[in-house]
Write a structure and sequence with these properties.
Length: about 1100
């Protein structure tokens, strides 16, 4: 039986066997099961796992036998007795003998004399009944009626009658009325301890082979298995009251009505409707209702395209007019690129009418990349739990909704699942809902997965999986209730597999008959779930036909009213779709003011002393000798008031923690540091798991510090940390790659969330990515963080020299999508980390970090470069003889990162300190046009060279080259002659104020704007009239001061952090690239990032150093 391998042809054949018992009989593995009970095949616990039937759950069965045998050896069959006496059996460590599962001898003695020993047939028959019960529990789902279309029915061999199975168990018709004692591992009896065989079979058939298929017996916890059995087996669990049924009907009506309304009004628009799985809406509502009842106050959801609008409308209750406005193709009122409507997020706080409790619902915005949002949701959830002090996840939970094809196809699902139980990543249980329409775009399951179910990935974390036929609303509601209770009880993941179908094509414009003709013939004849359920409720007298119609009509009216309202809108507002508002963060802040990043020297000394000290109970806490030396070396540095890389980092973290900023560092092996330099967690050498983390003990009232070695995943962990960073701007969240290039397995998170999140979803993040980078002869894969890729995604315009003013740097930071830097000193590293928090807004920071520099004797900074008055240096000028006498300098070598130390050494070796200046570009993006210009002007007569250790087609060269040209040659404005390309396409806005201080640039008026070609206008300025009005005032006054109060109406900036119109307002000017040039000194282009041969690496390095350091 392989659900994925079933073919459509089966759908046309009648279901061969509806009864599990029949199937059981014919299944070869089942035969083994049957025989196993009597034959008592001798297996060890381990070998049991290899047997098809004897999986982990069968071990529980063996365990039961074992427990019974322990209490009374004669209570089990002689074969079990022999087996246990042989000492072959080893009790599994996590299954202690459980009283509830004992099987006393008297259990077999129904109807017989109380003291008489049971005969072996009685024992065999009882064991056979137990085996049957277990078989239903283990594999009943395989034959349950899950598919509303009845296409994917099991492939059943032969045609045997139900009777024969009893016969096979040595049961005949005559046994049907025989009473059998029920074991403690079933709840089908309710209050009854025994039942006739016929009733046992009927009840099992109903529980496990009807519209719900429960897959749970692989779970290695008897308690959890019993919990699930009870929820599904107890008689009457599926009985719903008339009120409950009406509520389901009303919700289903809305879900169905919403799609129908959109189909009517926007028939040619893509919306990725939910038709065929509309029950997902009542399902989500049920999960939220039950969870709210159980204490949850905030639900964070991640979901793909399918049914997203419906979820926003009917689960989150996002105003319908805002949703409809998205269909109108209106201009946006705010900045950014926006996104298609079925990717946008939302955040709503509202009263849950069923539970009468307040609830916060967020749907996280996501890209097309299916499942990429999963870890982001988890990180955001974790962070919300953290800030609320919700250590057990009782108040905040996540729900992840998946498509069937994506759930089994995308590796990030697995990677995310593996975070679910890790101490620093768990969200204490996620409910996964699969909108399983049994198709992925045009691909059938049998071609899209090799596993029986699309949900099999969840088995790796022992998550129970509840398959349910999406055409049975009551079964679905029951499953949802159990899922919510499961999460609240065990705080572990579980999966609801809603097996439905897709009524239309992949989207509403697609023709499904091209590829699934027979399936769609069937779908066309298939009544929708609402009609089926309404018919049922009418037939049983719960509602009348009139009531059904009136509920539908009422909802249609609501939609019509919202539709009319939407028509009056003139703009869409991206801010309405924000998923993570930071209330209060932007209010009253000067958006162009950075707080100082230097701190008092005494603070540095305090942090340094703590960081270099063993734990207070040092006498008892045995530290590794090597680490004692590390601590001693740190202490010496503190005494000498200098810092190496690790100390500089600790200064940044410690000082932020002191200021109440939570710091979280996560990634592979970050606690020690891949290069064994960090050592934030000291391990007691004699006591297991006893650790000490000095950064957690800097100050009594400090913010929490968390450092966590992560699972070996980049995609999920980076996504998780990105999500974490979205929740609260007052936290420094860092993810470190083991080596920089490993971040490429997280490329979708980088491309779709980190680089473009603000532009698409008006969402900011101050996440820091630490990427070890440097060509140090370690081979192609351990050398480069591929900084060129990050730079290529930087949004600053290579040809645009922003207006020069005191606010040059902050304006650039404000306008760019992220910051890319490569620091050469611990002090600059310290400042750039602190600046992340000092900024009045948040931008991701991509930081190339060193390897050999971690221990380089010159890569140290005095405390004076970190104390009050010091700040981050975007460029570090040459401070040696060349810098002191610039007019004598023949050549200026610009560089970034560790190659600086090689260059200075070569320069010293060649005694060219007076002739060659070396200037470090520490912040590569946004490009320090102003400082580069200043440096170039300083060395008027010198040749200019960019030197890098990366190959020419890699590293920073292709990014810096055009920007150097713009920085060097800014005298001739070409904007007037090249209007089409005058403006930066995202960051430049128009100003009508001519008082700009920038002498190099021309101001541009509205009338100038109007005379431009439309494309140029569109790219150039704010998109709405209102925004243009707001931005019409100059952002800088004649004195260069920025007056936030005057120019920003913060009341109108609902989500605060959006760039208020005008902040970036500055006329764009491009410059002719004539005059001074910059040349390149470095490796040639290459396909690989570095050579695998150390000798060749050194040869290349020497060549590039000689090339750069020559006059
Ligand atoms: C990572 C990724 N690969 C490919 C696609 C293109 N794509 C969009 S929807 C889709 C099918 C998804 O099927 P399923 O997960 O079952 O969801 P359904 O559309 O059936 O609801 C594909 C392949 C994508 N969006 N993301
Ligand atoms: Mg699908």
């Amino acid at each position: 039986m392989h659900r994925a391998h079933t073919a459509f042809s089966l759908a046309l054949s009648p279901m061969a066997h509806k009864n599990f018992a029949t199937w059981l009989l014919n299944s070869s593995s089942s035969q083994k099961l049957i025989k196993a009970t009597a034959a008592a095949a001798v297996r060890t616990y381990n070998s049991a796992a290899a047997e098809p039937f004897a999986n982990g759950s069968t071990a529980t069965y063996v365990e039961e036998m074992y427990n019974a045998w322990l209490r009374d050896p004669s209570s089990v069959h002689t074969s079990w007795d022999a087996y246990f006496r042989s000492n072959t059996y080893v009790s599994p460590p996590n299954l202690a003998p459980v009283q509830a599962n004992t099987l006393p001898l008297t259990a077999f003695n129904l109807g017989g004399a109380a003291s008489a020993a049971p005969d072996s047939k009685t024992i065999d028959d009882h064991l056979a009944v137990q085996a049957i019960i277990r078989s239903y529990q283990i594999r009943g789902h395989n034959i349950a009626h899950l598919d509303p279309l009845e296409i994917n029915t099991p492939e059943l061999p032969g045609n045997s009658s139900t009777k024969s199975i009893y016969a096979n168990f040595s049961f005949g018709e005559q046994d049907m009325e025989r009473q059998f004692k029920l074991p403690s591992t079933t709840f089908i009896g309710g209050d009854e301890a025994s039942l006739p065989l016929k009733e046992i079979l009927n009840r099992l058939e109903n529980v496990y082979c009807n519209k719900i298929g429960v897959e749970f017996m692989f779970i290695n916890s008897l308690e959890q298995c019993n919990w699930i059995r009870k929820r599904f087996e107890t008689p009457g669990v599926l009985n719903f009251s008339p009120e409950e049924k009406r509520l389901i009907l009303a919700r289903l009506t809305r879900a169905t009505g919403f799609e129908a309304f959109l189909a009517k009004k926007y028939s040619s628009e893509k919306r990725f409707g939910l038709e065929g799985c509309e029950i997902m809406i009542p399902a989500l509502k049920e999960i939220i209702d039950v969870s709210t009842e159980l204490g949850v106050e905030s639900v964070i959801m991640g979901m793909p395209h399918r049914g997203r609008l419906n979820t926003l409308a009917n689960v989150c209750r996002k105003p319908l007019n805002q949703i409809f406005t998205q269909f109108a193709g209106l201009e946006a009122a705010d900045d950014g690129s926006g996104d298609v409507k079925y990717h946008l997020g939302t955040y709503i706080e509202r009263l849950n009418r069923v539970t009468n409790k307040n609830i916060r619902l967020a749907v996280v915005a996501n890209p097309s990349h299916l499942e990429a949002v999963d870890p982001v949701v988890q990180g955001k959830t974790r962070a919300e739990q953290f800030y609320r002090g919700d250590q057990e996840g009782k108040k905040v939970m996540s729900i992840l909704i998946h498509g069937d094809a994506a759930f089994c196809g995308q590796g990030v699902v697995y990677e995310t699942m593996h975070l679910s139980d890790l101490p620093d990543y768990t969200t204490h249980g996620t409910i996964h809902v699969v909108a399983n329409n049994q198709i992925g775009f045009t691909t059938d399951p049998r071609f899209s997965r090799s596993s029986p179910y699309c949900t099999d990935v969840a088995r790796v974390v022992n998550a129970p999986i509840f398959h349910v036929n999406a055409d049975d609303p009551e079964a679905v509601m029951h499953v949802c209730k159990v899922a919510a209770e499961w999460r609240a009880t065990f705080h572990k993941d579980c999966v609801i597999d809603l097996v439905g179908y897709r009524r239309n094509g992949h989207n509403e414009i697609d023709e499904p008959m091209f590829t699934q003709p027979l399936m769609y013939q069937k779908i066309r004849k298939h009544k929708n779930c609402l009609d089926l359920y309404a018919d049922k409720l009418i037939a049983e007298g719960t509602v009348t036909g009139e009531e059904v119609k009136s509920v539908a009509a009422k909802y249609e009216n609501i939609c019509e009213e919202a539709f009319a309202l939407a028509k009056t809108e003139t703009h869409v507002k991206y801010k309405d779709w924000l998923d993570s508002p930071w209330s209060g963060f932007f209010e009253g802040k000067d958006p162009l003011k950075v707080a100082p990043t230097g701190v008092k020297e005494e603070t540095l000394i305090h942090i340094g002393n703590r960081f270099s000290s063993p734990p207070p109970n040092a006498a008892e806490f045995v530290i590794h000798k090597g680490l004692m030396r590390v601590l001693a070396a740190r202490k010496t540095m503190v005494d000498e008031k200098i810092a190496d890389w690790a100390l500089g980092e600790a200064m940044a973290f410690g000082s932020l923690l002191k200021e109440g900023i939570h710091v979280r560092l996560s990634g592979q092996d970050v606690e020690r540091g891949t290069f064994s330099h960090r050592h934030h967690v000291l391990h007691h050498q004699l006591v297991d798991k006893a650790t000490y983390n000095s950064l957690q003990h800097m100050y009594p009232d400090q913010a929490p510090y968390s450092v966590s070695n992560s699972s070996l995943s980049e995609y999920a962990v980076l996504g998780f940390e990105h999500g974490y960073s979205m929740t609260n701007p007052n936290a420094l969240v860092l993810w470190e790659a083991q080596f920089g290039d490993f971040s490429n397995t997280a490329q979708s998170i980088i491309d779709q969330f980190i680089s473009s999140g603000q532009s698409k979803w008006v969402r900011q993040s101050g996440l820091v990515m630490l990427l070890p980078h440097g060509m140090e002869g370690m081979g192609p894969e351990h050398s480069s963080c591929r900084v060129e890729r990050f730079l290529q995604m930087s949004s600053d315009d290579p040809d645009y020299f922003p207006p020069e003013s005191d606010e040059f740097a902050i304006r650039q930071l404000h306008d760019i999508n992220w910051i890319v830097a490569n620091c050469t000193t611990p002090a600059n590293y310290y400042h750039i980390l602190r600046r992340q928090i000092a900024l009045p807004f948040r931008k991701p920071l991509i930081l190339c970090t060193p390897k050999s520099l971690l221990r380089h004797p010159e890569a140290k900074s005095p405390f004076s470069e970190m104390s009050e008055g010091s700040e981050f240096q975007r460029i570090i000028p040459d401070r040696g003889p060349a810098g002191e006498n610039p007019s004598n300098v023949k050549k200026v070598v610009f560089c970034t990162g560790r190659v600086y130390y090689d260059l200075t050494k070569t320069r010293a070796d060649k005694q060219l300190e007076k002739d060659i200046a070396i200037v470090r570009v520490e912040q590569v993006s946004p490009f320090p046009f102003d400082l580069v210009k200043e440096q170039a002007n300083l060395y008027k007569n010198a040749d200019l060279v960019w030197s890098q250790e990366e190959h020419k087609n890699q590293g920073c060269w292709s990014y810096v080259q055009p920007r150097f040209l713009t920085a060097l040659n800014h005298s001739r404005d070409i904007s007037q002659s090249d209007e089409q390309s005058t403006f930066s396409n995202t960051t430049t806005t128009t100003t009508t104020d001519n008082t700009n201080t920038n002498q190099d640039t021309d101001s541009e008026t509205d009338s100038d704007q109007k005379s431009k070609p439309w494309l140029s206008r569109m790219f150039a300025s704010n998109k709405s009239d209102s925004a243009t009005t707001g931005g019409s005032a100059a952002t800088a006054t004649a004195t260069g001061e920025f007056n936030a109060a005057k120019h920003f109406d913060l009341k109108n900036v609902r989500h605060d952090f959006n760039r208020p119109a005008g902040v970036a307002a500055a006329p764009g000017v491009r410059h002719a690239k004539t005059g001074r040039k910059i040349s390149y000194a470095g490796r040639a282009s290459s396909a690989s990032t570095a050579t695998g041969s150390k000798a060749q690496h050194i040869r290349e390095l020497n060549a590039l150093l000689n090339d750069a350091i020559s006059t």
